[in-house]
Amino acid sequence: MKSIISITDLQVAYQKTVVLDEVTLEIPAGQITGIIGPNGSGKTTLLKSIMGLIPIEKGTIRILDQPLYAIRKALAYVPQRESVDWNFPASVFDVVAMGRLNTQKWWKRLNQEDLTIINKALEQVQLTEFRDRQIGQLSGGQQQRVFLARALAQQAQIILMDEPFVGVDMVSQSAILEVLFELRAQGKSMIIVHHDLLTVSNYFDYAILLNNKVVATGPTSEVLQPETLEKAYGATLLLNR
Amino acid sequence: MSSYSIIDPTLQRIVIGTVLIGLSASLVGVFSFLRKKSLIGDAISHAILPGIAVAYLFIETKNPVVLLIGAVIAGWLATIVMGGLQRTTKLKEDSIIAIVLSAFFALGLVLLSWIQGHSNGSQSGLSDFLFGKVAALTNQDVYLFTLVGAALLLIIGIKKRLFYYIAFDRDYMTTRGFSVRWNESIVSTCSIFAIAIGIQAVGVVLMSALLIIPVASARMLTYRLGTLMLLTGIFGVVSALGGSYLSTLSANMPTGPWIIMVLAGIALLSFFIGKLRSKTNHQKAKLG
Amino acid sequence: MNYALILITALLVVIPASILGVFLMQRKMVMVGDAISHAVLPGIVIAYLISGQRDSYLLLIGAALAGVFTTLLIDFLHQRMRIQQDAAIGTTFTFLFALGVLLISFFAGNNVDLDQECVLYGDLETSFLDQRIWNGYLIGTGALFKLVPLLIAVLTTLFVAYRPLQIWAFNPEFGKQMGLKINRWQLLVMSLVSLHAVLSFDSVGAIMVVGMLIIPPATASLMTNKLKQLILFSILMGCFASILGFFAAIYVNVSIAPMIVLTASVLFGFTWLWYYLKNKVGKKQLLSD
Q1: Which of A11-25, A120-134, B264-278, C72-86 has the highest mean pLDDT?
Q2: Which of A178, B51, B263, C165 is a plausible cystine mate for B70, CB 3.0–4.6 Å?
Q3: Distances (CA, A) of B238 to A61, B213, C87, C93, C254
Q4: Which of A52, A90, A134 sits opposite B168 (nearest CB)?
Q5: In this structure, are residues C232 and C286 in contact, taking their beta carbons and an 8 Å threshold?
Q6: ∠A70-A75-A77 over CA atoms, to 5°?
Q7: How far apart are alpha carbons C246 and C254 in whole angstroms?
Q8: How many whole angstroms separate alpha carbon C175 and alpha carbon C185?
Q9: Strand A75-78 and strand C131-134: pairing?
Q10: How, if at all, do strands A189-193 and A206-210 pair?
Q11: How many whole angstroms separate alpha carbon C88 and alpha carbon C77?
Q12: Contact B27, B229 (CB under 8 A)
């Protein structure tokens, strides 16, 4: 298995609680990987550690065998929908345009190429007609698609998403999934924190089961065994296929 | 006091001074508004009082540069204390703002009271800072404002998109490699400077109104950044000019409250226009 | 200068503030409290203009209404006009306070009683002059007559409604589920805050009202998180600051009310330092385990 992200002995603490305890794992390339586990198991923390959003006590994270600062361009982050105020004065276009920001030359205005990429991203998530709509006027699923479009506009290799399916209607869910499967076909890698066990096998190829420690990693079918789930959730769960 | 000819240097001074104040304060206020940190401006405005009082103690006359330095240092101290409290305690943000506001302001009032008790007439200018007195502006003040104002407008003009994006989605901008903390401290510093020059017109107690109300009103009319900033700037200038004018109509009136009254009128108007537009849009959508 | 009377007046302002502030702090309504303290000004001025005196019941009612009006205005701006909460608060109190200041400066010529700057730091120094004599005995001052009932009202509310207030402050979600009328308790506390602001205004001015609403409770919160202790420590801190501040102000010859707030801030500062060092040591121990 070719891995794009290698994590060794990751330790993350918040005030007096240990959130991630000596986590060591590999995330495969070209697959859709789901990070699952009970509430408080450190899923979002894992994602944020990879993105360099929170300080870590110890451990190393290598992306494409490089440290974060060297390889930022390869990563696109899709935060939780609730992390942003949707009453903010911005249109759908404004948000997606963030994906075309040039970190080195931030003062540069959008050129023709940028516009093409933005419009294409909007098409991919089927939000073209909402281009100039204020983001607060969209449904939850549409807002999630805006975030995805922004990530697409970055044209990154690896996309990390934090609970993208929470509170999202069926139409948006399938629209998003369509895009993810397309990206996978193009050889891109997706890492997704997910909340709903029932849909894991439908969405993900590879799974990481967390409970502040690594409980299991591997192809979804292997991880979703009753024994492993019990270790994470502390109860016997029956998942009907 | 109420008859000025158009080429009267006093009038020119007041007009230029207030335009600069109105413009820079309201535009800087856009970004505190976007970050939802409008009330921090209130804490900083109040915190500036001791800075000015100390500066007064040192030089005993109204030297704009020294006063500005004193104000900025006080503003910075307040910001640092707020940041420190945020990091080291579990106190919530509104508590922290209120603590810093009251503590620094109390210090300022104590110093003010001390100066009034121990000094002679030179301190009477100090209380103008409480509620603002545009008529007290000197040429030196205006030169300083032009400098500071121009610098502020330049910084905002160049970096507005970045500030805007960071206000919207801080985490995302961090993942893109932008130094969010650095940019946020630039915004804070700009706020401090804008407030430091603004208090001459509006006064310490009411300064936050000039930061908040223009952009809050403009927000009711648009959601695009460009238009938002344009409207905000206009509202800032109109209220500063209008309020200053109204305050000259009667002797010994403080300027600040009048500026707020104009702002209140603008806010009300914006509300009604905003409501009207959304109603017609709604109707259009229904019919279309 | 009658030290005792002045000091008692200060304490009568500080104690209810210290109590009410604990609840405001817990509910993140401190800045709303700040807004109310500013917003009562126009109410006070109008009531004063109508009644011609500083202590009338009209004053009480009108200005207390102003306080409630403030919360309503903030809510209106926030919910109906869709302005974000911090901007709604800022807009409301600056507007109302500006209105009050304007009213004062319009009518300042006629009266020495109201003064623009006075509204900021009050007039503790001369409050003892307004004496009430009965049968030849000095039974109090105008300020005392206003503040004692307030203290009684606050203490009574605290004792009678302790449980619901506690739930309102610390566990509103749970309270809602239990059928507790959350809004009613919020209204009650906000009304008391308004009343307190109105009655304390001419004694200590806006700054001290706000300062004592937040600084003693915040100091207490660094020392404990149990409600009963919070209230107790808050009161103690407030009283301590009042007494120290009072004598310091006399000694240095400055205005009393802001000096009390300053003293409270210094006490807060020391407590913060203690808290910070305590945590640093605690963390070191944790990491070395």
Answers
A1: A120-134
A2: B51
A3: 54, 12, 20, 21, 39
A4: A90
A5: no
A6: 130
A7: 10
A8: 11
A9: unpaired
A10: unpaired
A11: 6
A12: yes
From CA B52, how far away is CA B195, in angstroms rounded? 12
Tens-place pLDDT, residues A90-102: 999 999 999 999 8
The CATH number of domain A3-84+157-233, selected from 3.30.565.10, 3.40.630.30, 3.40.50.300, 1.10.760.10: 3.40.50.300
**Locus of tokens 């100039």:** A132
- Sorted by sequence, the CB contacts under 8 Å of residue B266 that are 6+ apart come out as B213, B214, B217, B235, B238, B239
Does the distance separating the beta carbons of A87 and C84 come in below 8 Å?
Answer: yes
Q: Is the Cβ–Cβ distance between A228 and A34 less than 8 Å? A: no
Report residues of chain B scoring pLDDT below 50. 1-2, 288
Kindly state the tokens that stand for A157: 């290799």
Q: Which residues of C touch A85 (CB under 8 A)?
A: 84
Residues 6+ apart with CB under 8 A from B282: none
What torsion do the CA atoms of C22, C27, C28, C34 make, to the nearest 10 degrees?
-60
Task: Please list the alpha-helical segments (H only) found in chain B.
Answer: 9-34, 38-59, 64-88, 93-118, 128-131, 139-168, 170-175, 180-202, 207-219, 225-248, 256-287
pLDDT in tens, C151-163: 898 999 888 888 8
CA distance C130 to C126: 8
CA–CA dist A44, A53 (Å, integer): 11
- What is the token pair recorded at A142? 């549409």
What's the Rg (C-alpha) of chain C? Answer: 20
Q: How many residues does chain B have?
A: 288
Neighboring chains of C (3 or more beta-carbon pairs < 8 A): A, B
Mean pLDDT of chain C: 82
Beta-bridged to residue A63, according to DSSP, are A5, A66
* Contact between B102 and C261 (Cβ < 8 Å): yes
In the chain, the amino acid numbered B226 is G
As a 3-state breakdown, chain C gives helix, strand, coil percent values, each rounded to 5, of 80, 5, 15
Q: Indicate the domain borders of chain C.
A: 3-128+141-206
Cβ–Cβ contacts within 10 Å for residue B279, how many? 10
Tell me which residues of chain B have a C-beta less than 8 Å from any C-beta of chain A.
34, 36, 158, 161-162, 165, 167-169, 171-178, 219, 222-225, 228
Domain C3-128+141-206 in CATH 1.10.3470.10? The answer is: yes
CA angle in degrees (0–180, nearest 5) for B187-B191-B196: 150
Task: Give the tokens for residue A118.
Answer: 């933005």
CB spacing of B175 vs A88 below 8 angstroms? no
- Say if residues C181 and C161 touch (Cβ distance below 8 Å): no
What is the structure's pLDDT at B141? 86
Query: pLDDT digit string (tens) for B207-264?
Result: 999 999 999 999 999 999 999 999 999 999 999 999 888 888 876 678 888 999 999 9
| Dist CA C239 CA C259 (whole Å) | 13
Query: Tokens 């994270």 correspond to what residue?
Result: A61
Nearest by CB: A16 against C82, C84, C286? C286
Cα–Cα dist B66/B30, whole Å = 28
Local structure of C8: helix, strand or coil: helix
The amino acid at B241: L
C82–A16 CB contact, under 8 Å:
no
Cβ(C94)–Cβ(B213) below 8 Å: yes
Residues of A in contact with C84 (CB under 8 A): 85, 87
- Domain parsing of chain A, residue ranges: 3-84+157-233
Domain boundaries, chain B: 9-208
**Two structure tokens written together for B248:** 């000259």
ipTM (interface predicted TM): 0.93
**Cα separation, C137 vs B234, whole angstroms:** 62
In CATH, what number does B9-208 get? 1.10.3470.10
